[in-house]
Amino acid sequence: MEESKKKLYHIHKLNNNDEIWKVGNELEFGKEKNNFTKTAFEFEYKIMLENAYYPYLNVYDYYGSRQAISDLLNLLPASKSFINEYQILVRELGMEEIRKEEFSLLPSRRNCIWLCRENQIDFWKKFLGDDIEIYELEIFNSVFKTRNALIPLPSDSYKQILKKSKQYWSYNSTVENEDDEYLYTGKLKIVGKVN
Predict the structure, then answer these.
(1) CA 75/CA 33 separation, integer angstroms
(2) Please, which residues have CB within 8 angstroms of residue 10's CB and are 6 or more apart in sequence?
(3) pLDDT, tens digit, for every residue of 21-44?
């Protein structure tokens, strides 16, 4: 892990804990799951049918038994979303398995905050899309630098996920890349908001 630099930034996806993101606030990360992990672990594979939520496979079987092809086709967007969430969960479980076994001193993706350098903000803005705010932070502990390009693909087999995870966690380069990501746990102070 490398020592902290003077300025690091966080690109915050707007959500239900936005009230804590105010200039001057001090926050601590590492003691509880971050929003990314909460989404992966709490995502429910249910779909609305006749004013109630039902498990996706039950709805699929219901429509399939009625041979309602048009109804089954209407389930495709939900299918894509569910498969994507499930693949991300499997990937993150594999990455955490390797971290615990071989890189236990590094911060976990489950409870870290992701940071970047100023020259990487444009990449991350494009990557994360709309509904974001950017904050300049002062951090007090060291950070772990790796690359987004080394994250296993959600569609990789579990065996590939484990192999690629070793590359992700063992990354050690002083070269600055636009897709570098810095994993941080510990206290930080929000010193500014970038427009």
Answers:
(1) 31
(2) 113, 114, 115, 116, 134, 135, 137
(3) 999 999 999 999 998 888 888 887
